[in-house]
Design brief:
Radius of gyration: 20 Å
Largest sheet: 3 strands, antiparallel
Strand order of the largest sheet: 1-2-3
Number of strands: 11
């Protein structure tokens, strides 16, 4: 990977990205469960024996294979159709509205209504619409109405987090994660529908976290908030899904979404790019493990490393935003980090034999299974190889279509 030019522009690298995308789409085809929904796959691609289906798994597969269909993956329709049917007929609560967090065969297992899951339903519907699915509009309209009625807080310009099945309060918790993925879904919904309300709301969420919170926190992003949207520094929830402190991988995601938002607004500027870089480079500086490489999972509020576990998804998200920065304003340090992250991913996360990416590695940089069973989804890793191949930083559907013709690596 040594070269005088940017790795992102090298034909061999771009050809490998496309090859790995094909391998991932082939690997995760086995997720389709003929009995309904999707299976989680083992490291070697075999369906695991568990009847539980979580909402974010279904929606992420729909979104990912919608990207695949746009890029010309011929087998993508089967997974999109299967996922859309499962969302509407099994995850959706026909009595009280909204979508159950998890399903056991065909019955609710965890019947809570979570903003995190609902914004992924919007993402799945919007991506399916861009890919031409005939039932996508129904899904978008349904979940948008639920998000409007129960989750969107107009005064704050942010989403609240969680309800019981009957829409009675579950807690007064507020969090960044659901809102960050809300931005992702809102931007995709704007691309799919042209409805400006989606873009406006995405901008309000970004303003809160990036314009207000990040500068006062030395360009780190606290995860947890009280009901009035004050930082909750004492919160310590689930150590995997709601860890205390800050999560540098989310800085990469929000930095990319900031660029995507302004690109859609036709307001990209040097200031916006510089702001994105501040988030990215603070997170890279804080999170890179000096001894073993890779990016640690969580930080304390002062930037010291807290949970040093290393997962695949922060690496994929850092790759994605660095690719965007290189497209917009290429700097030598962007290329150095892009190469460093790809070198690490190729050595430790990419499964060159079976396909897909290993989700976690141990202290010896070997694949392990402490937090994740099997390979949990295609979403993060396939975007890491597809997004660098597109020309722009937004309208990924259009970028995927170009991969069928002029932009496809040889």
């Amino acid at each position: 990977m040594n070269s005088n030019k940017f790795l992102l522009d090298e034909s061999a690298h771009r050809a490998w990205l496309w090859s790995d995308a094909l391998n991932q789409f082939a690997f995760f085809r086995n997720s389709l469960n003929p009995a309904g929904g999707f299976c989680v796959l083992s490291h070697d691609g075999q369906p695991l024996d568990s009847p539980v289906q979580e909402l974010h798994t279904t929606t992420r597969l729909v979104h990912s294979y919608a990207l695949g269909k746009l890029a010309g993956i011929e087998t993508a329709d089967a997974l999109i159709n299967h996922g859309i049917e499962h969302l509407w007929n099994t995850h959706r609560d026909p009595d009280q509205g909204g979508y159950f967090w998890s399903i056991d065969t065909s019955l609710p297992k965890d019947d809570r209504k979570l903003a995190y899951g609902h914004v992924f339903v919007l993402l799945a519907g919007a991506s399916a619409k861009i890919a031409g699915h005939p039932e996508a509009d129904r899904l978008i309209a349904d979940v948008s109405a639920v998000l409007d009625q129960y989750f969107w807080e107009e005064d704050a310009g942010l989403y609240c987090d969680e309800w019981n099945r009957d829409w009675t309060p579950f807690s007064d918790y507020r969090g960044m994660n659901a809102n960050m993925h809300g931005v992702e879904a809102l931007l995709t919904a704007f691309e799919a529908t042209g409805n400006d309300i989606y873009l406006t709301r995405a901008g309000r969420i970004l303003d809160f976290f990036i314009r207000k919170i990040a500068p006062q926190e030395n360009w780190r992003l606290p995860e947890h908030y009280t009901s009035d949207w004050s930082i909750d520094r004492n919160y310590s929830g689930n150590p995997m899904f709601r860890p205390s402190g800050t999560t540098p991988g989310h800085s990469f995601e929000l930095a990319r979404l900031l660029l995507q938002y302004h690109d859609l607004r036709n307001s990209l500027s040097g200031e916006v790019i510089a702001t994105s870089r501040k988030l990215v480079y603070q997170a890279l500086s804080d999170a890179w493990h000096a001894d073993r490489g890779g990016l640690v999972y969580t930080l304390n509020f002062d930037g010291t490393q807290a949970n040093a576990s290393r997962y695949w998804w922060p690496v994929t998200e850092a790759i994605g935003v660095l690719a965007c920065l290189i497209k917009l304003d290429p700097q030598p340090q962007d290329d150095r980090w892009y190469r460093q992250l790809w070198d690490f991913a190729l050595a430790h996360f990419v499964d060159h034999t079976a396909g897909g990416w290993f989700p976690e590695i141990d202290s010896s940089n070997r694949p392990c299974a402490t937090q994740f069973t099997g390979k949990p989804d295609i979403y993060h890793s396939v975007q890491a190889v597809l997004f660098p191949l597109t020309q722009g930083v937004s309208r990924f559907g259009e970028g995927m279509r170009r991969l069928q013709t002029s932009d496809r690596p040889l």
